[in-house]
Structures are given as structure tokens and as C-alpha cells.
Amino acid sequence: MSEYRIQGNTGAWEVVIGLEVHAQITSESKLFSGSSTGFGAEPNSHVSLVDTAMPGMLPVPNRECLRQAVRTGMAINAQINRWSRFDRKNYFYADLPQGYQISQLYHPIVGEGEIEVTLNEKDPDSPTKKIGIERIHVEQDAGKLMHDQHPTMSFVDLNRSGVALMEIVSRPDISSPQEAGAYLKKLRSILRYVGSCDGNMEQGSMRADVNVSVRKPGGELGTRTETKNVNSIRFMMQAIEYEAQRQVDLIESGGAVVQETRLFDPNKMETRSMRSKEDAHDYRYFPDPDLLPVELDDAFLEECRASLPELPDAKRARYEAMGLTAYNAAVLTAEAETAFWFEDLLAQGVDAKQGSNWLMSELFGALNKMGKTLDESPVNPKQAAELLGLVADGTISGSIAKQVFEIMLETGQAASAIVEEKGLKQTNDTGAIEAEIAKIMAANEDKVAEYRSGKDKLFGFFVGQTMKAMQGKANPQIINDLLKKALG
Question: Which of 106, 158, 391, 453 is positioned for an S-S bond with 143, CB 3.0–4.6 A?
């Protein structure tokens, strides 16, 4: 899809990229305990005896977490494994009370799937590429070490300990930073549509481990490094660029890439070594003896499939079939919140073309100026539908609608109340309009003569003058008809 190459002293190199995305599952409680998953709470206030691994505490799987993982797998057309199992991944870290993480190495709940991406979602002619998904497994998160609370000690916050994660592992099918960005955007969009993760990378509920290696075009795969916990799409793309260039420079200077775990420093825009990369056998994985295998029956799978919403690609195709341009359809479906807002607008009976054009030009423009997101919009779909309805039935003109909309943004008032209060109703009084046209023609006899001698472009001048004289309240169609008749 994209011919991305790094030019070194010995010629061109290609990049091979795979992503492991950790997505926090949408659930009010953790994977194996009833503790809250709420963000931003006081340290260690969302912690149960299970989360702290107190003696005798046994994990109990959260059905909702497994359900969300299955729904996500179905959304990417992946194989759903009716039989899966939890394993223990053994390692010591101060924020891991158990001394192991419960994960799924050998038998994940979701198998192979794929996501189709385009480099430019807004360009209908942009080429597409299918990125393979190797697996989705469910695991528990660790806690968090806080190094800035004390001069000589680190504190431990276990609020995240035991929070349910989906690890979504791609195949090494990605070959440029741009493709990686397109993949992560599309994956985040799908998760938000499905409702299985909020995709909030700033809060850490979605983060990516980035595997990068370089090779001569078509050559053997090189040694890969893994850059951990990248928490924005922009940082991920920058990490790939830096790390790929670092590896090329290293190899060409006679060095060798070491399989290791690295961190990305967004301030210095570089990756740095964190530790040597462990292999699976280093973690001494074995089946968790406290947990039975997970077996999914037909009724559960049918309920999961029936609960899926219309997904981005299907919604985009439907919008295009409704007459929207490919560009508009792409913009409206790229983010779940935009699509849901537009669906609410359509549910109020608004014409699809009228609604999409207004949403993308007027509302998005206003929110940009205000520095607000669509979720923070002072005008909701019902209020917007009322405003657009007043334009559609001829109560107000398009130019008056812009004025009304500005007042709505400031006051939150209903469009009809503003129109009534300000006396902004459009007039269809042909007599009043004809009288103004007569005055304008009398004051501009030279322009009338020019128009009649073939200067058709002057028609716009007469329309503008008439609208001005009518204070923008005259029906534009009636003005056009009466001017054509008067000017001959």
C-alpha cells in the first residue's frame, strides 16, 4: 500500500512492523474481582483482597469482560475459540502483588482476524490494505509505580491491578509509520463502535507495544525490538521512524540489532534501551490452577453477535447509498461519536445531505473555534434538527439560520424561540419584495441596462441588494423569480 523506504549508505531498507495493542475492556469491575475500574480515583482506593493477592483469595472471571472480547473478535471477523484457557506468566515486579500475571498464551479466546485500512480515510481513491490479526487474548493489568511522591522511595498504586485488558496482536504486515497510524486509528474506531474500549490513549486505556525490524527489500527478517507502552498515534509513528533509522545506522556501521525492550521518550523524540527482551519460556507459563477453562456455548455467541452495532465500513457504504459523497461518508464514520451524533440527527427526520453538510461545515467549524469536542457541543441533535427544519420548510433562510445558530451556541435557546423573539421569519410577501425590487432598479438604471445587454453576472448584484433591503428575511427563491420577471 505504501512504498516506505529508509535510504542508508548501502541502499534502501524496508521496515517490518507489528503492533500489540493493550485495550482496557469496558467494564465497571475488574477481570477477577468486583473492584471498580473508574479512572482518576485516589491511589489504592479501588483495590480488593483479590487484587492484592491476599492468601486464600481466588479469582472469579468477569463474564462481561469475556463478552466484550468476543464481540471485538466478531467485529474484525476473527475466529472465536469456544474453548480457551488462562495461563500464569511468572515474573517479579513491585506493582504485581501475585508475582505472576494471569494471561492467555496457549489458548486465547479470539484467533485470527483482519482489519482493512486505507492510508487516507477521507480520500475515496486511497488504496486499501488488509492487516492480519494473529489473536486477541484477555489478561489482567499490573499496578503502577509512582516515583515522584517521595525523594527516596517509590510508591505503589494498585488501582489498575487486575483491570481487564484485551491484547490485540497484529501480524507483521505493516510496512510504514503511516500504515501503523491508519491501523491504530481504524482499530480504535472499531473498539469505540463496539463499546468494548473507550480508546482513550491519554488516560492509558489503550496503548501500543511497537515491534520494529529492518531488512533489505524482500530479504530475511531482521532482529526486532519492542518499544513499550506508546500512548498516542503520533508518538507511535515517530517511534517507528526513529527506531527504524537507528537500526539501519547500527547495522551499516558494523553493529548488530539486539532483541530488547525499549521506551520512547516524546521529549527527545527517541527510543532508549529498557531491558533485554525475554522469550516466552523465560516467564515459565503454565495453566492457572485456580481457573477452569472458558467454554462458550451457542446462546452466548448468538447474544454477542446480535449485540454488535453497524460497524464503520458498513455504515460508510450505507451513507454513500443515501447520496452522501464518499468524503462526507468517510468523515462521518471515522469516529464513533460523530457517527452516533449524525444518526441521532437523521432519527429526527433531517435530510441526510442537508444534515451532513451542516454538521461538517457549521457545527465542526464552530466547535473548532470554541476548542470543544462533539461530546461537548452546546447544541444537541434535536436542537440542530429543529434549526434545519426551519430552513427546510422556508420559515428562515440559510443566512438567517447562521445567525440563529450563533445565538444557539451562546445561549442554548431553541431555534424557534430565537426566530420568534428576534422577528427573523422569512417573508413570502411578493408585494413587499416587488416594491423593493422596483426601488433598486430605479436606483441602478445603468446596471439594469448592462444586465439587459447581456451581462448576466449582474443578476447576483440585484439578488444581494434585494436581500439587503429585506434584511435577509425574504425567501431567496421568490426573490429570484420576481427579479427574473422584472429584469426581463
Answer: 158
Alpha helical stretches, state H, 223-297: 233-252
Contact of 23 with 199, CB cutoff 8 Å: yes
**Cα-based distances in Å from 322 to 296, 341, 350, 353, 355:** 39, 17, 13, 8, 12
- Integer Cα distance of 261 and 60 in angstroms: 32
Angle between helices 398-411 and 415-422 (to 10 degrees): 110
Note whether residue 234 is domain-resident.
Answer: yes
Low-confidence ranges of the chain (pLDDT < 50): none
Distances (CA, A) of 147 to 151, 229, 316: 8, 17, 46
Task: Give the angle 99-102-104 at the CA atoms, nearest 5°.
Answer: 140
List all residues 6 or more positions away from 126 whose beta carbon is below 8 Å from its beta carbon.
118, 119, 120
Torsion of CA 457, 462, 465, 467, to 10 degrees: -100
Range of the domain at 360: 310-422
Domain count, the chain: 3
Output the pLDDT for position 432.
80
Distance CA(364)–CA(378), nearest Å, equals 12
Question: Please, which residues bridge with residue 262 across strands?
Answer: 227, 273
Decide if 170 contacts 132 (C-beta within 8 A).
yes
* Residue where the block lists cell 491511589: 43
pLDDT at 124: 66
Q: Are 95 and 145 in contact (CB under 8 A)?
A: yes
Q: Give the CATH number of the domain where residue 452 resides.
A: 1.10.10.410
Residues 120/126, Cβ–Cβ less than 8 Å: yes
Q: Residues 182, 316: one domain?
A: no
pLDDT of residue 2: 58
